[in-house]
Q: What sequence folds into this?
């Protein structure tokens, strides 16, 4: 399992290729998700996102969430990379990938990890546009999805 | 000396993300700390009462407002988390 | 939407990178799944899979399934690549990827497309090992998952 | 002339994946075709009755065994599908 919280831009393609390359013919299923910073939110342009985090706490909590996902599903490996700091439109914010023998476990793990990140990871997202900045807070839907997973 | 941290929307309201305080001996719980902050800055005091705000004492999430803050080095007030 | 049924080996990493590159800062969510040919099935080694298909029918049916997925979810794009013929252990069998504004739609589309492929795509999978060959047929679980989707 | 196709496990049972047949005029439905096959090859006849076997006439899935096969160019018997 690798959990990386980083201020540096990363290539989800390259990270996913490296993650999948270590499967050695064993895993049958690779599910993944990449969240990108969009150039628009609704009808207004977005210049960048700023992800505030709590150094020393964010890393520990995200790792704890990833360990919970790993414990709940039969996985061969799990990868979580999350940007913090300033993220330009078009750049990747988050990559989650799971290798498993079975597709259902791989899908469930990635989906659940994303739901956890949305509501349980100590990070705060601010959208910066021409008109100024605004904080993005989780939606009722995010919380509802989170509630579907047992604690 | 205790460091108070404010994250997300709360860092805007507090006007800073970090504040070093000499908390009085009477501030022994999270609830007492909220009241102490509200007395000094009513707007911030109201903001930290908002739904979804979470508190961590020494980098551990609080479950109850009755948790002890005595001798805490770091207390964080966090707007609703929004990663991913 | 691209739907490819091919006897040629493909690189899921390269295909996914190309698919994601055309998003132009618009899509916020990329979900994907890769199914690989495993070197083992249970405790016995697998040399390769052989995927029989029905030329002229398989292509039409898989495209029809992909169109149904596209119609059911708010997607910006959908990619389906499926190998047929002989597939060596370690090679990719299938890649499904969906670009969307929202992660829930992207996840649902990929997961649903995989479920359809397992039970509704005219393809027949045979596992070839040292001891001989055996046909793989969908499990009760595959059918149960498929039943969760409306027709 | 009608081409019968067999896929998956059925291609092993049939001993081939493709068979050109001159079907008699009495074979007008999928059900009649099954009976005709069973009369010529009982083992194959039983195999195409197995649960999960699907039939396509001219590359269109059959919903009922009463579907017409008259003049069909291609009729496929398919073991349970297993892509992905």
A:
């Amino acid at each position: 399992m690798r959990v990386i919280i980083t201020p540096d831009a990363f290539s989800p393609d390259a990270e996913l290729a490296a993650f999948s390359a270590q499967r050695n013919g064993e895993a049958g299923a690779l599910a993944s998700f990449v969240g990108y910073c969009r150039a628009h939110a609704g009808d207004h342009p977005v210049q960048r996102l700023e992800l505030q985090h709590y150094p020393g706490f964010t890393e520990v909590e995200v790792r704890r969430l990833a360990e919970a996902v790993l414990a709940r599903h039969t996985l061969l490996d799990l990868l979580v990379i999350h940007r913090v700091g300033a993220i330009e439109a078009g750049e990747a914010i988050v990559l989650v990938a799971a290798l498993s023998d079975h597709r259902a476990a791989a899908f469930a793990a990635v989906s659940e990890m994303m739901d956890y990140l949305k509501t349980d990871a100590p990070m705060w997202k601010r959208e910066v546009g021409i008109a100024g900045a605004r904080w993005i807070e989780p939606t009722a839907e995010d919380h509802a999805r989170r509630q579907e997973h047992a604690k | 000396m205790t460091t108070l941290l404010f994250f997300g929307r709360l860092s805007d309201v507090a006007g800073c993300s970090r504040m070093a305080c000499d908390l009085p001996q009477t501030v022994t719980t999270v609830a007492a700390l909220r009241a102490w902050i509200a007395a000094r800055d009513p707007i911030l005091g109201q903001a930290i009462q908002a739904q979804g705000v979470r508190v961590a004492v020494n980098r551990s999430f609080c479950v109850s407002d009755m948790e002890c803050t005595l001798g805490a080095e770091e207390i964080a007030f966090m707007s609703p988390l929004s990663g991913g």
User: Anything to note?
Assistant: The two ends of chain C are 21 Å apart (CA to CA). Helices of chain C lie at 12-21, 58-72, 103-120, 140-147. Strands of chain C lie at 2-6, 29-36, 40-41, 44-45, 48-53, 77-83, 85-88, 92-100, 123-129, 132-136. The first strand of chain C starts at residue 2 and ends at 6.
